[in-house]
């Protein structure tokens, strides 16, 4: 079992910045992909960014250049630095931890990000 503890959400004006953090506890180790997904009201959950065990990153096109994902392998913590936020970035952001192969994975409880126009 892996437990994910998220922090860093909040309310910011358009153009502002936030930094999300997520630490994996329990059976977590660095042989994993960690990432962030988000779900806006009335919409499906979507991938925002992921980072692999080797440091390879993947971004949703609309956030590339504004968001940066990074990872501290010693503490099993993943970060999402979000700059130049826009109202359409408003959503609940969820951390995810999974193995590079096979099904399954674990989700965090979610943290609300609200960007005012």
- List low-confidence stretches: none
Distance between the termini: 40 Å
Structural class: mainly beta
Radius of gyration: 13 Å
Share in helix: under 10%
Helix-strand pattern? EEEEEEEEEEE
**Largest sheet entry:** 7 strands, mixed
Binned strand content: over 45%
According to DSSP, the number of beta strands is 11
Our count of helices gives 0
Shape verdict: globular
Q: What average pLDDT do the residues reach?
A: 96
Describe this structure in words.
Helices cover 0% and strands 54% of the residues. The strands form 2 sheets. Strands 2, 4, 5, 6, 9, 10 and 11 form a 7-stranded mixed sheet that branches. Strand 4 and strand 5 (46-51) form a beta hairpin. It is globular and about 40 Å long. It starts with a strand and ends with a strand. The mean pLDDT is 96. The protein has strands at residues 2-7, 10-13, 18-26, 33-39, 46-51, 57-59, 67-72, 77-82, 91-98, 106-107, 111-116. It is mostly beta strands and 117 residues long. It contains no helices and 11 strands.
């Amino acid at each position: 079992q892996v437990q994910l503890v998220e922090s860093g959400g909040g309310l910011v004006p358009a153009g502002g910045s936030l930094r999300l953090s997520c630490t994996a506890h329990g059976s977590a180790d660095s042989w994993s992909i960690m990432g962030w997904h988000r779900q806006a009201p009335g919409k499906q959950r979507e991938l925002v960014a992921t980072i692999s065990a080797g440091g390879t990153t993947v971004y949703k096109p609309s956030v590339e250049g504004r968001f940066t994902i990074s990872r501290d392998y010693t503490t099993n913590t993943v970060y999402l630095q979000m700059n130049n936020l826009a109202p359409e970035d408003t959503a609940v952001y969820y951390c995810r931890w999974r193995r590079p192969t096979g099904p399954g994975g674990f989700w965090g409880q979610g943290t609300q990000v609200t960007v005012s126009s």
